[in-house]
Amino acid sequence: MDKHKVIEAYRRGLITLQECGQILGAEKTQVDDLVRADHSRRSVPSNPLFLADYY
């Protein structure tokens, strides 16, 4: 299974951190590092969404 999909499933609350580690075959500290590293490597989407409030 794709590592990024597993991490995204964890972020969306579909699986627990422990389940994420089991799927990836990693220990909790390794999963923590992976989740943090994956988050920092994310690039800005090519079509970002901007939200503005007008009063």
Q: What series of H and E elements makes up the topology?
A: HHH
Number of strands: 0
| Tally of individual helices | 3
Largest sheet: none
Whole-number radius of gyration? 15 Å
The unreliable regions are none
**Which range does the strand content fall in?**
under 5%
Give the class from helix and strand content and strand pairing: mainly alpha
Key words describing this protein structure:
55 residues, mainly alpha, 0% strand, elongated
Describe the structure.
This protein is an all-alpha fold. The chain has a domain at 3-40. 56% of the residues lie in helices and 0% in strands. It contains three helices and no strands. It has helices at residues 3-11, 17-24, 28-41. It is elongated and about 50 Å long. The termini are far apart. The model has no long low-confidence stretch (mean pLDDT 77).
